Amino acid sequence: MTETSARDRIVRAAAALLAEGGRAAVSTRAVSRAAGVQAPTIYRQFGDLRGLLDAAASYGFAAHLHAQAAHEPADDPVDDLRRGWDMHVGFGVANPAFHTLMYGDPRPGARPTAARVAADIFRQLVVRVAEAGRLRVDVDRAAEMVHAASCGVTLTLIQGGDPGLSVATREAVVTAICADSPAARAVRPPDRPVRHAVALRAALPQLAGDLTPAERALLAEWLDRLAGADRQA
User: Fold this and answer.
1) DSSP of 163-215, one letter per residue?
2) Calpha distance 150→199 (Å, rounded)
3) pTM of the model
4) Separation CA 124–CA 103 (nearest Å)
5) Looking at the UniProt feature table, which residue ranges are given for the DNA-binding region (predicted)?
6) For 44-69, what is each residue's pLDDT tens digit?
């Protein structure tokens, strides 16, 4: 058995145990028996049980993302952001052991791999909203708001919260960070200049060939200052 195949078997076994019995079911002995390996192989591959749990959670989340990969992006980037929220919450409610492993045991300065992937997905969705000129705040702030709120809602629903909480919270966050309605886009609200600054900041990497490094850095500084004006208000 190669090291690669052994690692795959261990991760799959741990993920199956996690889905069936929760975190308590994932012990070195149980995984060794299910994967057909010796305990030293697990420690050599993952360092410790926490490393194995991180890999198992990442595997489960990656499988869910693969199942969702066939969806084409929506014409409206805000609708895509909504769908990303629903996908994230839906995964957590359907797989509470994976979600609580990703978010239920926070450590300062450390974030499980699957949680980092989820945060990156939200950021990509928010960048699309920014590029459309529809983001009221800067990309990083908006992505953090969406990720944090969706995680909190999911943990609440896992504990038996009101199922309508997800949509209500999602729409509150969308309203806070996006210029979403046709009426809001038709008028010139006070945040219109901020949204233009955010949009240009999101598109700045595409201008790499038209500006010198010094010019890009200076423009990025100006745009970040404009986009962050709401924080200082």
Assistant:
1) TTHHHHHHHHHHHHHB--SHHHHHS--TTHHHHHHHHHHHHGGGGTTTS-HHH
2) 24
3) 0.73
4) 20
5) 27-46
6) 999 988 899 999 999 999 888 887 76
